[in-house]
Amino acid sequence: MTYVCDKEGIQFEVQALEFIAQTAEGGMRDALSILDQAIAFGDETLTLSHVLNVTGSVGKDDLHALTDAIVTHDVRGAFDLYHQLLSNGKESNRLVNDFIYYLRDIIVDFATGTEGQGEIYRVELPVIYEMIDKINDTLVSMRFAVNVNIHFEVLIVKLSELVKSHQQSAGVNTQYIDAKMKEFEEKLAQVQLNPTAAPSKPKQKVERTTNKFSISQIENVLDNANREDLNYLKENWQSLIDHVKQNDRALVSLLQNSEPVAASSTHVLIKFEEDIHCELVNKGDDKREQIESIVYTIINKKVKMVGVPDSQWLQVRHDYIKNKKQQTEAKSEPKNDIVKTAEDLFGKDTINLID
Fold first, then answer.
1. What residues pair up with 209 in beta bridges, in sequence order?
2. pLDDT at residue 118 above 70?
3. How far is the C-alpha of 217 from the C-alpha of 131, rounded, in Å?
4. Which residues pair with 269 in a beta bridge?
5. pTM
């Protein structure tokens, strides 16, 4: 392309030719075609801006701003920037590809020790690998989607939640651990002096939640679930979706990829294919109550609805069964006082017994 521009007497920015080469992915015919369009689009000098406009691609400044909004959990800001790019003529499919290349450049900067993308280095390298995996998954989904914009919006939320979960797991409070260790040492001393003494503070049940669902609410449904109510709900679930399609199309996107997985006489547990749909139902009282009222018209039973994301359901179910088994075993075997004290302070899952 440099040879062509020199022969034709066309001034150019090196970055413009580099971007065309990247977009053409090594195809000379595609590269020359894009070059021809960009020259026709521009003035006397071929610039990167001309190439971005011709290809519908997004520049690094916009990609940096979008990524920075995601890693700082400014989802609303990321949404606004995304829609601004669309209004400027950018294409969602092209944006996803540009996003992958942008993160690829960051990985190269990591690997080579190059000073690169500023604030993005608050994110660790393994997190960027996971971000690229999720972007690739979205790219596949968009190929068969009617509305690709929704898929990209969901991707923004998923990436922000991914970064947040890694940041939370990395931010261990060492002061809390030190305090608990000191408390354990004091309790241990009491037990050694008086082996029959029970811990002074009873163990309390803690409400365990995530950003999208409540473990305690799900356990409450499973504790009282029965096969008869679940089968009846499953048999009528398609009728409920058909009812929504005819009377309340605003709820169709929430329910068309949902499935009841547990039910009792008072509660139902619904699995949602998209994590964001689960979060909308669990946190949005209005939408949940709307669905509950429709369920009532179909099965003639007033029930409370709890959502669980498809991506977490098998793990949640496995953990529930495992905990129930452990509780049963705990009732049948008396606990050593020291072990019980440790479990009361730190939780059963954190204790490793060595005989």
1. 214
2. no
3. 30
4. 262, 306
5. 0.42
